[in-house]
Automatic annotation (TrEMBL), chains A, B:
Cross-referenced InterPro entries: Ald_DH/histidinol_DH, Ald_DH_C, Ald_DH_N, Aldehyde_DH_dom, Aldehyde_DH_Superfamily, ALDH_KGSADH
Record's protein name: NADP-dependent aldehyde dehydrogenase
Record-level Gene Ontology MF annotations: aldehyde dehydrogenase (NADP+) activity
Keywords: Oxidoreductase
PANTHER family: ALDEHYDE DEHYDROGENASE-RELATED, SUCCINATE-SEMIALDEHYDE DEHYDROGENASE, MITOCHONDRIAL
Keyword Oxidoreductase: yes
Domain Aldehyde dehydrogenase positions: 7-276
UniProt-listed Enzyme Commission number(s): 1.2.1.4
Entry keyword Lipid metabolism: no
Pfam families: Aldedh
């Protein structure tokens, strides 16, 4: 993978902009076919892709095989979503001269926003990378995509991009529908380019902030969809600990060590009662860890866990060290609410990797204090006993996250209609999701047609509903 | 109206933040009742409100009476919208262990984002001010509102705020649900305050950019919904001019002079064939204008029209001057595409007030060049002859605006389900509308509940659908 130079980036974005006008006129069934073609081609070369990705990321064959299956399932799901048609939010108001003010014939639909820059993630070489959810959802709604590859898996990126490009070409998609660029500077050139109409980014809070500032400096600001850092708090009630402490220890250990802890949904802070069974049982579930995704990520893990270890009032436990020279250890820090309160910044900055922080609370008042210190997250999880009244706790947790779990663990993000992968800052900066059916809404903008002749209307808005899609007509949802 | 000091702003936002948690648990029917109570109280004091507003804005009794009626109709419409329930986007996925990856029980709903800062507009002392669309849509979904009053109509603002506050109190809304602040510094304090979760602004591009920069400097960025400047291009085909030139001249004159041209949807640039009937007929429809909203706006109008007049290759026509000492003249500038091309910045910066620019094109190629120079707008209007094939023109216009009109004029914005009041930068910075039913989406954020017991779910997501609202269940839209 060679770094793209500014001239190349400019050519690529111009080509995407030219494709944009053509894509805006394609039918949903056409783009659905493209997505399924990409999925089929990726599946057909699964063995090769997984092998290369494992060489580059050490994420292991089973996980990578699953991740690729998730990626192609996701492409097919977005094909289903656009064929279903609700994503267009087609809305028709027939004229109503009696309204205040009078209503003309008004018809509103969501249209593609234009070329999208996608920044691939380090930790999902398939599902959040070249042909991942951002790319799939932007292509689905008719936006050309330029992906900035992550340097952590360059060969995986190259081969995937090749497969996507060929599939699109063979399916008849316009030149410029998809392209990949490489290198830090190429990423900045993308964000600065007038032809780019939206940016989707998965990465660090610092990286996301830098892009936000860069976008703010453009003559024309554009939407930025950042999936950034997340602590994913877990609350364990005293009753839950008493009943299920041993199981919770095993579940927590499995979740925070999954994929060497390199998940945006890793549980990074766990509020537990003092003297919990969970804490007592946890050590035996800690395991030596394989190498991390990149040396930069490994360095960040060391720096972050040392920062926490250095706080007075924090104890640490850790797994054995891997025999592997570049392997690492799992680490758990333990502290109390008083220490958390005076060291909030040091203790609540995300440590990306196999690390979690147990915060021991003595009573509900202390639990409440701990909750008040937490920043926004993608998820928040509650473990309680079936009989407990948790309404007040749920009201406390809801403002903290985009997804609330009752039991279970936050790692593992289903791709479905009701999924929400996005939460208050610093987890994301948006009111949308980056996973699940409604992820497409990030790349659409509304257009209303007033008193338009039927012939010039997009098919979704024609009176006879030729696409047979769900619409709202004169305020009433109508499913054909 | 006294300027609010920082301490007052802080108290007000803290009170709004406290109310936020309570509002998030109110029922839709409760907030609908609040909105209707506000509407009723405003209607009951219509005479007084209109009189005060006319003294402050010179917008005249008929227009202001209509605007207040629109404002109270809008409050009632948002009440209807939340009672209908689709605005919650309630979505339920039942567990599907066979999916890749497996789907747990997932239920997604839109929740209030938290306290909203609303910046009132100068040009709509009712409909885009204290109790206008931004306030109504934020309250509708359960967000407390702090409005920054516009200094152009301080007494109108004071009385309206009093009415809103009393109506809410009498309806049982929590303290902190609504407040008004005044003064430039108070506005900045609002935008900086950690308790504010979104900002809605109607005003100049420059003002909007300043707030965007201010928000980018917050530790936690928040959504900014700016309704900024808009040229609202109109295209008149040769056939339309030949058939309807005289009527088009009358229609254009009425639209660009309406309310002394002080509308965000004023047609500010009109692409006409060379030697058009429209241009020949226009002078006799130009009328002397009353005073503008504020002396600052009047100065801006003078500066802007002088800037255009100073461009070589531009001719001007204007109305008689009003006898009124602080009245003004309507002005029309005329130029050709070649001049537009080399003076784009000078000629295509919005001139707020009774001004429009006619650009004469010789053929389709020149029309195409002119279109390529236009920035984004709230609206774009096409006047063509019934027989013409306008498909290519529509494809050219669509990327330029949020609302496309076929015949008619862009001033006059209906409040309905399909309305779209928002377009590409610099008209707005969002993918949402600030007028119409979906304006509420700006102040909502999605939350998904995973494997939650029915009892802790919001009513909208409970299995039995106690609210009887439209929902998507396992991918299928279901209307009760």
């Amino acid at each position: 993978m060679n770094e793209s130079i500014p001239r190349e980036v400019d050519d690529i974005v111009r080509s995407a902009a030219a494709a944009s006008a053509l894509l805006a006129r394609t039918e949903d069934i056409t783009r659905a076919m493209w997505l399924r073609a990409i999925a089929g081609s990726l599946d057909a070369r699964s063995g090769e892709l997984v092998r290369i990705a494992d060489e580059e990321t050490a994420l292991r064959i089973p996980r990578l095989t699953g991740e690729l299956a998730r990626t192609t399932a996701q492409l097919r799901q977005f094909a289903d979503v656009i064929e279903e048609g609700s994503y267009l939010e087609a809305t028709i108001d027939h004229p109503n001269p009696a309204a205040t003010p009078p209503v003309p014939d008004l018809r509103r639909v969501l249209r593609p926003i234009g070329p999208v820059a996608v920044f691939a993630a380090s930790n999902f070489p398939f599902a959040f990378s070249i042909a991942g959810g951002d790319t799939a959802s932007a292509l689905a709604v008719g936006c050309p995509v330029v992906v900035k590859a992550h340097p952590g898996h360059p060969r995986t990126s190259d081969v995937t991009a090749q497969i996507v490009t060929e599939s699109l070409r063979e399916s008849g998609a316009p030149e410029g529908t998809f392209a990949m660029v490489s290198g830090f500077d190429a990423g900045l050139s993308l964000v600065d380019h007038a032809g780019i109409r939206a940016v989707a980014f998965t990465g660090s809070v610092r990286g996301g902030r830098a892009l936000i500032d860069r976008i703010a400096a453009r003559p024309e600001p554009i939407p930025f969809y950042g999936e950034l850092g997340s602590l994913n708090p877990v609350v364990v009630t005293a009753a839950a600990d008493a009943e299920q402490g041993a199981d919770l220890a095993a579940g927590l250990a499995a979740s925070f060590q999954l994929g060497v802890g390199q998940f945006c949904t890793k549980p990074g802070v766990v509020l537990v009662p003092h003297d919990s069974a969970l804490e007592r049982e946890l050590p035996r579930h800690l395991a030596a860890q394989q190498r991390m995704l990149t040396s930069g990520i490994a360095d960040g893990f060391t720096t972050g866990s040392e920062r926490v270890r250095g706080v007075s009032g924090v104890e640490m436990m850790s797994s054995a060290t891997s025999g592997d020279s570049d392997g690492t250890s799992s680490m758990v820090a333990m502290t109390d609410v008083a220490t958390l309160r005076v060291n909030t910044d040091s203790l609540l900055e995300e440590v990306f990797g196999p690390f979690t922080l147990l915060v021991r609370y003595r009573d509900e008042a202390e639990l409440d204090v701990a909750l008040s210190l937490l920043p926004g997250s993608l998820t928040a999880t509650l473990h309680s006993s079936p009989g407990e009244d948790v309404a007040a706790l749920v009201h406390r947790l809801e403002p903290l996250a985009g997804r609330l779990l009752f039991g279970g663990w936050p790692t593992g993000v289903a791709v479905s209609w009701a999924q929400q992968h996005g939460g208050p800052w610093p987890s994301t900066n948006t009111q949308f999701t980056s996973v699940g059916a409604t992820a497409v809404r990030r790349f659409q903008r509304p257009v209303a047609f007033q008193d338009a002749p039927d012939a010039v209307l997009p098919a979704a808005l024609r009176e006879e509903n030729p696409l047979r899609i769900p619409r709202r007509v004169d305020g009433v949802p109508i499913t054909p």
